Amino acid sequence: MPTALITGGTTGIGRATAELLHARGYHVALTGQNPDSLAAARRELPDDVVIVRADARVTADTDALVETVSQRLGRLDLLFLNAGVFRPAPVGDVSEESFDDHVAVNFKGQYFTLQKALPLLNDGGSIVLTVGVGARRGTPGATVGAATRGALLAMLPSLALELAPRRIRVNAVSPGATDTSLFDKLGVGPAGRDALRATIPFQRFGSSREVAEVVAFLASDAAGYVTGQDVAVAGGYGLGA
Questions:
Q1: Are 32 and 38 spatial neighbours (Cβ–Cβ below 8 Å)?
Q2: CATH hierarchy code of domain 3-233
Q3: HEC states along 20-57?
Q4: C-alpha pair distances (Å), 199 with each of 34, 75, 151, 176
Q5: Quick one: pLDDT at residue 138?
Q6: Which residues on neighbouring strands pair with residue 7, listed in sequence order?
């Protein structure tokens, strides 16, 4: 049975990926740190899904997570580094606390989760990073979110080369506007959603399942010759001049 660890797996894209991979025969472990979303995941996902409360900011949580995954799953075939935060604000309004929090979760937390989980990853396995089209395409107010997600993208080629001798493939998935609870958290109302939708060539938002399908492909043998790539799942957003 293939195995997968998904950080930030209790909601949105992470949750959809956990559901998809489990349905395809994976033994899945996922993380979250919001009590409500953790409770919902434990209530709604199959009993054999391993759900771990872990905060990417806290190294001790990461150590405990890796120990739990080692005990429950043994080895890993997929590491999906999906946890992240996004709190948009103009440059002049970004606090040092918000800046540090973005770095701690989006970059430092994912980096050290990778480092600590790497000994569990099978040769020939797969690492997938969630980046987002905002790392390449500008959005006002997204400087810190884009920079910290973009840090993962910047390390992608070096990491892919470093792990190539073990045949571990390292790729990124970059969702565009995806219909998740993030819109509600950011207070984006109907008018804002309509305006955003109008910028997308497909004239619609993506679904978490559509992103999950790309992650599943990158984890599969069908992508056995794909490494160091960033796959945009964005309905053509940003292609125009």
A1: yes
A2: 3.40.50.720
A3: HHHHCCCEEEEEECCHHHHHHHHHHCCCCCEEEECCCC
A4: 32, 42, 26, 11
A5: 74
A6: 81
- d(CA 75, CA 89) in angstroms, rounded, equals 40
Q: Which two tokens stand for residue 72?
A: 């429950």
Contacts of 122 (CB under 8 A, 6+ apart): 75, 76, 77
- Total length of the chain: 241
Query: pTM for this structure?
Result: 0.94
pLDDT at 241: 66
Query: Residue 80: which of 138, 144, 9, 27 has the closest Cα?
Result: 9
Helix 208-219 with 12-23: angle, nearest 10 deg: 50
Average pLDDT for runs of 10 along the chain of length 241: 96 97 98 95 96 95 97 97 91 95 96 97 98 82 91 97 98 89 67 79 91 98 98 87 66
